[in-house]
Amino acid sequence: MRSKRSFHFVKSSRKFLIASALITFLGIIAVSVFGLNYGIDFSSGTSVDITTTKPVEEEKLKVFLDEQELGEYILTSSENRDTIRFKAALNDQQEREFKAAFASTFDSNASFEINIVDPDIAREQQTSALIGMAVACLGIVVYVSIRFEWRFAISAVVSLIYSAFFVITVFSIFRLEVNLPFILAVLTIIGYAINDTVIIFDRIRENMRFAKLKTHADLDELVNKSIWQTLARSINTVITVLIASVCLFIFGSESIKLFSLAMIVGLICGAYSSIFIASQFWLYLRKKQPLKKVAVKPQSNTP
Amino acid sequence: MKRIVAFVLVVLVGFGIMGVFTPGLLNETKLGLDLKGGVEILYEAHPIAEGGTVTKEALKQTALSLEKRANKNGVAEPEVTTEGSNRIRLKIAVSTGSTDQERDAAIEKIRDLMKRPAELQFRSAEGCADGEYCTVELYGSDFKEGAAKVELGDLNQYMVRIEVKEKQKLTDVSTRLLQKNLAIFLDDELQSAPVVQQPLPDGTAVITGQNSREEAQQLADIINLGALPLKLTEKYTQSVGATLGQKSLEDTLFAGILASVLILVFMLALYRLPGFVASICLIVFVWVLLGIFYLMGATLTLPGIAAFVLGIGIAVDSNIITAERIMDELRSGKTIASSLRAGAKNSFRAIIDAHITTLIAGGVLFFMGHGIVKSFAVVLMWSIVVNIATNVFLPRFLLNLLVKSGKFNKPSYYSVKESEISAL
């Protein structure tokens, strides 16, 4: 990385910031127009995953489901695996009858995974997920403010909200199901994005200690240098976590597939935003103050 | 040389210990119901009598008797916890039965049992059709909890003594129903129908007419334990068939192992000696984390595995940060030993800051989340703590041993080319 230090992150930052703003703008439109495809965890209802030992014809299954009269449903069928979402939350009587009927009609060795969420719980989970995220962000801001300074904290949060929102946009556009694991993924992404950002900020803070900053151009150079110094780490870490997420996505069980997908999207976006948003945003805030007046907090002497 | 021997010894002994305990660890680690089948139900409790309230005490009592009932039915480790002011979460994992079908059936049976909370009523035939008891006079919640007991009467007959909370209520009922039947119903099933012999002014009553001690004890138990003061409705249900759970486990384990191997190869190829040390530390990390789950008696679930794999990602990150830092210091012309010292020192601050921010996010999830969010958070937080020990301090110690041995002085061992080193 060291030998070809040709790309200047700060000088090209404008393009990326504009692009990011554009993406966010499109995202807001997408989410407000399409909304999110809430799974049963947030919209209530019943999800049934059936693994069969022999293939079940989709047409026959549809006829069967209509016969059951359990209300509106969505069927996703693949070989030896069928996923049905009922809009209604079935009671346990209905659930049992459904299982028995399926077993006798199609496959007595079928294995079921059934989730039923009542509307009250769905609403509650939605609000508690949102509050959880807000509190987590707040906690991060407070910690980063204490360890660094408020400008770093604000920039870090702007960048992690961008990453989280990007993933939400992707899920909205591609109509992927938003369930509790998705919230987990978004929270993990926030964790990683903040990780990436902290590493770069730490380098900026360290470089500031010895830097004699006279002009804004000096500051640009410093940020650019810091990004380059941490770039190898950023890329390599993203690669390793990507290895894990991609493995889980391809080979993992159905229930964590979407989680892994959200992780993959979020990881890349998190690394991007720490470089092109967090650092640049900090630079923007920092330049608003005269250079001399702002003192970066002295480093504590950690071993 | 001594130090290399020390290094090899530490690694060998460490892996030896891991090797000995690993089979036990893997067998003993409890798997969640999503990995081996089972059912998780979130109940909401309502008072049986109208206008009643759900007290903390009543909720606890209900949870306790649910657990007892599950235990009576031979379920291994039913998990019953109260949540908030009026919820009970029940987890039952598959345990009995030799085939998957049998296991699924066993789960269904227990769920059924749980679903119908024993509702105790004392009824009279006042204003009912012949031979029927339809007027509820007393509810299970009117009785003092755990106060029913078996006594031996003067004529050596067995009887059950019960006690009510409000004396007046019993006095009224017994006066009104003098010489009439007061039938005891559990879940709409007639248990016994003793006749009221006299007015009962002191809040206790004796039910006679039990043929054996067992019979009397059974009735007392029904009144005590079975008398669930609250009615339960299912709010959230997750049930996983045994076959499906098994498949999820296999798929996810395979993905996890594959990912781990790929990550180790990647680290080795990229960072050479620090990569090698990192690989050792990563294996130790996974093992210690599993060990902690075992000691905590925690259950490994799918979200837990997801957090586990992410924990590995964080652990790798710590190693990468340190290795990169060492490379930087080497390039600036420092000796290997001082690069190591400076690299470890400079990377520490960044790693700790990053870890604590993630820990904050994990802590919030832990305290605010329920169910899968909580199990994810537990694993995430533990992996961060374990990570600091096994991937910050351990690699430093191992690398120190290797470097001080003087055998690994070539920069290429650290992925640094001679040409990149600038003269001091």
Brief digest:
By secondary structure, chain A is of the alpha+beta class.
Count every beta strand of chain B, where a strand is a DSSP E run of 2 or more residues: 13
The second-level CATH architecture of the largest domain in chain A is Up-down Bundle
Let me know the CATH homologous superfamily of the largest domain in chain B.
Multidrug efflux transporter AcrB transmembrane domain
Q: Give the neighbour order of strands across the main sheet of chain A.
A: 3-4-2-5
- Alpha-beta classification of chain A: alpha+beta
Largest sheet of chain B: 4 strands, antiparallel
Count of separate DSSP helical elements of chain B: 10
Top CATH class of the largest domain in chain B: Mainly Alpha
Description:
- The complex is a heterodimer of chains A (303) and B (424).
- Chain A has two domains: 13-39 and 121-287, Up-down Bundle (Multidrug efflux transporter AcrB transmembrane fold), CATH 1.20.1640.10; 45-117, Alpha-Beta Plaits (2-Layer Sandwich).
- Helices cover 67% and strands 10% of the residues of chain A.
- Chain A contains nine helices and six strands.
- Chain A has helices at residues 13-34, 40-43, 58-68, 92-105, 119-147, 150-173, 180-210, 216-251, 257-287; strands at residues 37-38, 45-51, 73-78, 81-86, 111-117, 177-178.
- In chain A, helix 1 packs across helix 6, helix 6 runs antiparallel to helix 9 (257-287) and helix 7 runs antiparallel to helix 8 (216-251).
- The mean pLDDT of chain B is 80.
- In chain B, strand 3 and strand 4 form a beta hairpin.
- In chain B, strands 3-4-2-12 form a four-stranded antiparallel sheet.
- In chain B, helix 7 (242-296) crosses helix 10 (371-404).
- The radius of gyration of chain B is 32 Å and the shape is elongated.
